[in-house]
Amino acid sequence: MRRPIKKSFSELVQENKQELLRDSEALERIEEKLEEKQLRKA
């Protein structure tokens, strides 16, 4: 079995961005988690 071709970090980031733009529900959950963390730090 051949190993998959390694992608650069920026390529992976771009892929993740595209997936999140398609999956707005996941994006909402991430935003909520970030807000909670910021509120705890304040």
Explain this structure to me?
This is FbpB family small basic protein. It comes from Lederbergia graminis. Keywords: Coiled coil. This protein has two helices and no strands. It is mainly alpha-helical. The chain has one domain. The longest helix is centred in the last third of the chain and has 18 residues, at 24-41.
Short description:
This protein is mainly α.
For the termini, the CA-CA separation is 50 Å
- Report the count of strand segments: 0
Give the tally of structural domains: 1
Largest sheet, in brief, is:
none
Structural class, by secondary structure, is mainly alpha
Shape: elongated
Tally of DSSP helical segments:
2
Rg of Cα set? 15 Å
Low-confidence stretches: none
Percentage beta strand: under 5%
What percent of the residues sit in helical stretches (DSSP H or I)?
A: over 70%
Protein name: FbpB family small basic protein
Pfam families: Fur_reg_FbpB
Coiled coil: 10-40
InterPro entries: SenN/SenS (IPR025004)
Topology of this structure?
Elements: H1 9-22, H2 24-41
